[in-house]
Every structure is written in C-alpha cells, then in structure tokens.
Design goal:
With about 500 residues, the chain is an alpha/beta fold. It folds into four domains: about 150 residues, Rossmann fold (3-Layer(aba) Sandwich); about 170 residues, P-loop containing nucleotide triphosphate hydrolases (Rossmann fold, 3-Layer(aba) Sandwich), CATH 3.40.50.300; about 90 residues, Helicase, Ruva Protein, domain 3; about 50 residues, Arc Repressor Mutant, subunit A (Orthogonal Bundle). It is about 45% helix and about 15% strand. It contains 21 helices and 18 strands. A five-stranded parallel beta sheet has the order 2-1-3-4-5, sandwiched between helices. Helix 3 links the parallel strand 3 and strand 4. It binds adenosine-5'-triphosphate and magnesium ion.
C-alpha cells in the first residue's frame, strides 16, 4: 500500500484514485464522520492526504486553491482544515487567520516544508492548533489528524453542555443560575471531559456529591460505574479492603477474594467522600495507588492495575491540614490537580427561589395540587443563612410539605428556627415592640443554640443520630464532628 514517507513528487506514490478538487470522499466507517478539507497545490500530497484521511474515516474534500477553499468553507461545515503553507507566500497564513476568525470551531493543521520553521511558528500564532513538517509519514499524518479530531470532539461536547446550560436552569440535576454557579458549570463542563483527579471543596450540604456525580455523568465513561466511598464513616481497615480489594484468607471472614472499588469501577469514577478523614497510613497507600496506577489487594503479594477516575471531596480545610501535618502534602497536590470550590448558599441567595421551586416540584409529584411557598415563607428563606446549605433547604421544604395542611406552605410550616427568624423580622418592623419582646432579651450565642438543637434532636429521636442529622439538615459526619467538638460522648446522658 502507501509508502510511509510522503515526498512532494507524484512519482513517490503508488497509484491512487483520482481526486477531483472539491469532491467528497469517505471510508464509510458508519460512525459520525468529521469533515476534513485538504488544501494543497501539490496534487500528489493532496491526493495522498485525501486517501489516508478517508481510510481513517474522515469525510474529505480537497482543493488546490485558496480561493476555492474559501468557497468550500462557506458552503459546508468543516471540522478540520489541513492547509499547506506555500513557501515564500503569506496566502496560507492569511487563510488560517481568516478561518480562525470566521469559523473558530474549525481545527486547523498547517503543513510546512522542513526549511521553514518560522512558518510553523507563524501558523500557530495565526490560529493553527497543530502543524506537520513535510515530508511526513502515514503515522504522523494519522496522529496529527487524531489529535485535532479529539480537540474538535472535546470542544463540541463542552459547547453542547454550555448550550444546554444557557437553555436550562442548571447543569444536569444541578439547579442554580447565580454567577457563582455559572462559573462552576463552565469549569465542570471542561473538567468532565478530562480524566484528571478532581478535588471538590465546600461546606456541608453545598452539593459536593452531586457535583461528583455530574462530572461522572458528563464524562466519556458515564456508562461505567460511579462508586462512592465514605472515608468518614468506615473504619480504616474496611476502607482499605473496600478500595483495594482482598484475597481469600486475608482476614477472618474473607472466604473468597474480592475486587476493590478501584478495580470494579472499570474505568468509571471512584468518589472518595470526606477524604480529610483518611488516616495517614491510608493516605500513603492511596498516594501509591494513584502514582503507580495499581493496587495491592489486602493480603496479596501481587499488584492489580487500575483505571478509575478519582473525584475526592471534603468540607475540611485540606491546605490547613497539610500545614498541621495531618494530611500528606504530596497526596494533596495529586488530588488537587483541578479543584472546585462550591459556594455556600448564603453567598448566592438568588438561587434560593429556583432551588425551592425545584424541591417543591419534586414534592408535588403525585399530589393533586402543586406546593408553593407563601410570600412570607419565601422572604424568610431568602434571609436565612443556611448553615446546612442546600441539604438544609431541601429538608426544610420536605418538612414544610409534610406539616402543611394545604398546597401553600406558610411561615408556620417551616422549621422552628426559620419561623423564629421570620417572626423576629416581623417584630423588628416595629422597633419598640421588638426591643420589648422576650425574644430580644433571650439572645444566646449561636454555638449554644446549635448544641442545644443537636442534643434535643437526638434525645427526641431516642438516640437516632442518622435521623437527627437528616432532620437538622446536616450530614452525619458533620453531626459526629460537632458532638466531638462539644465533647459529648453520649448525647442521651451528657450535658
Ligand atoms: N445545585 C443543586 N441543585 C439541586 N439540588 C442540589 C444541588 N446541590 C445539592 N443538591 C441537593 O442537596 C443535597 C445535598 O447535596 P450533597 O449530598 O451533594 O452535598 P454534600 O456537599 O456532599 O454534603 P455533605 O458535606 O453534608 O456530605 C442532595 O440531596 C442534593 O441532591
Ligand atoms: Mg457528601
């Protein structure tokens, strides 16, 4: 078949099918084919490029002239442009600059002769994404086309996501149109396409897990598993066998070997939640796994290769933990390749009505009438600081729907703390009354109120911490951490 090296002489090529300039070619691979336009005055190079690109599955057009190239570009969408830069002429560079301006989505590859290195630099400066020096091999042409095609596909995906965002109220299951969220979606739509580790940071309930799921859902391996691990609630030995797997007899009860999540993800995503809770020993093992891209199952002597993408999340200040020596610096840098910081809800209050409407819609499914918020209830929600962020908002709405006697949720249906705030604001509207009110004289530090709320919830629920956390609108890890901070070992006994 074709020689591996192209020269600019017709004689160097075996006979190829004749190529009429502007005629479409294609290898008929069946998948959606990218359009490629080859522009080169040399018939031999042109027809060889056409032949090979068509065999690679591109839909190819070719022409010898810049003028006709312009016409072809106007006439049909062109994904890739392979353009020769004639020696001692700026025509090719002019075309590149023009295309970059008129059709910014077209990926441009410049072909230069080996004697003109400056031309390649100039071509890149004008907007070419890549270049190829003549003579080139089949492999080189194929690699350069592949790279350009990948860029085109990634950009097209990101564009589709951005477009969907423009039309929707959020990204996927994520709701919110504040400037902070728009910025997050833009980064997310890019990040999803890559396979770098991502570190998701944010206060409790800001949507870290939802973001991790969204990255997975919009990534190239969305059909592969998404496997979450809660590093905060599992004991270290369990986390190790969960992540790395174990062999038969590794410990009592290990009756047969089991793959770890890194292996069973099969190229999907492993979500390491509450990564800040990982012990130093496990941090070292995780680092080794990420560096070497293989793991050693518990009790095994062999290593197993892994391909999973890692998304980690925490509400702790990992950088501060690194300073203190409780989190490994090298692991921090490895996980922190891309970091997404989720804004707390109080910093994007304009999203509260949208989020509330979203949760109300969900609660209204199967109901004869749609739930809605009274003006006073919504005003109170807009003023609240939401320490438990979106989870607290979601729980408040679920509770209000459960307590309300009709489809309109009133101030009285909201959690007590919110009701109190709503009432305080109402009272503050008549200052004299507000000062005289017993509420104003009973002000307590927030930390005391929080401790009281947590203890009361756990006691009223006979010690059910999970349910208490849910009703309080905080994660269970946060609840455990707070109990620790208050020095409470037994919430049913301690003060
Ligand atoms: N932008 C959003 N739009 C709609 N729902 C959201 C959004 N962000 C979070 N939620 C919902 O809020 C709840 C809490 O989100 P998630 O569990 O992802 O938060 P988190 O940051 O992981 O919390 P924690 O730190 O407590 O583990 C979930 O039910 C999630 O579906
Ligand atoms: Mg979480």
């Amino acid at each position: 078949m074709l020689e591996t090296v192209f020269h600019t002489s017709v004689m160097d090529f075996p006979p190829l099918p004749t190529t009429t300039p502007g005629q479409a070619h294609g290898a008929g691979t069946g998948k959606v084919r990218l359009n490629l336009l080859v522009v080169d005055a040399d018939p031999a190079v042109r027809s060889a490029c056409v032949e090979i690109a068509a065999q690679l599955g591109y839909q190819v057009l070719s022409t010898a002239e810049m003028g006709q190239a312009r016409q072809l570009l106007r006439g049909s969408a062109t994904d890739l442009l392979l353009v020769n830069l004639p020696f001692q002429s700026t025509q090719g560079l002019e075309l590149i600059a023009e295309i970059k301006l008129l059709y910014p989505d077209t990926a441009i590859i410049a072909m230069t002769s080996s004697t003109s290195v400056n031309q390649a630099v100039e071509a890149m400066r004008c907007g070419a994404g890549d270049y190829m020096t003549k003579p080139f091999t089949v492999d080189e042409l194929s690699a350069v086309l592949d790279r350009a095609a990948e860029r085109v596909n990634v950009d097209a995906e990101a564009r589709k996501l951005r477009e969907r965002l423009r039309l929707n109220q959020g990204l996927g299951a994520m709701v919110g149109r504040s400037a902070e969220m728009d910025k997050l979606y833009r980064i997310l739509s890019k990040v999803a396409q890559s396979s770098h580790p991502v570190l998701v940071l944010g206060e409790s309930g800001t949507g870290k897990e939802l973001v991790a799921r969204t990255i997975h859902a919009y990534g190239p391996n969305a059909t592969k598993p998404f496997l979450p691990v809660d590093c905060g609630s599992l004991v270290p030995s369990l986390i190790e066998s969960e992540l790395f797997g174990y062999v038969k007899g590794a410990f009592t009860g290990a009756l047969k070997s089991k793959d770890g999540l890194f292996v069973s993800a099969e190229g999907g995503t492993v979500f390491l939640d509450e990564i800040g809770e990982l012990t130093l020993d496990l941090q070292a093992k995780l680092l080794r796994a990420l560096q070497e891209k293989e793991v050693r199952p518990v009790g095994a002597t062999h290593r197993v290769p892994i391909r999973a993408r890692i998304v980690a999340a925490t509400n702790r200040d990992l950088a501060a933990m690194v300073e203190k020596g409780s989190f490994r610096k090298d692991l921090f840098y490895r996980l922190n390749v891309v970091n997404l910081r989720l804004p707390p809800l109080r910093d994007r209050r304009e999203d509260i009505p949208l989020l509330a409407a979203h949760f109300l819609d969900r609660m209204s499914k199967g109901q004869p009438k749609k739930y809605q918020l009274s003006d006073e209830a919504l005003r109170t929600m807009m003023r609240h600081d939401w320490p438990g962020n979106i989870r607290e908002l979601e729980n408040s709405i679920e509770r209000a729907c459960a307590f309300s006697s009709g489809p309109v949720l009133r101030l009285g249906d909201l959690p007590t703390q919110l009701q109190q705030q709503g009432l305080d604001v109402l009272r503050a509207q008549t200052p004299a009354e507000a000062v005289a009110s017993p509420v104003a004289t009973q002000v307590k530090p927030l930390a005391d109120l929080e401790k009281e709320a947590i203890l009361t919830a756990i006691r009223n629920l006979n010690g059910d911490k999970l349910l208490a956390a849910r009703l309080l609108g905080i994660g269970k890890t946060t609840l455990y951490r707070k109990l620790k901070e208050y020095g409470i070992q037994d919430p049913l006994q301690d003060d």
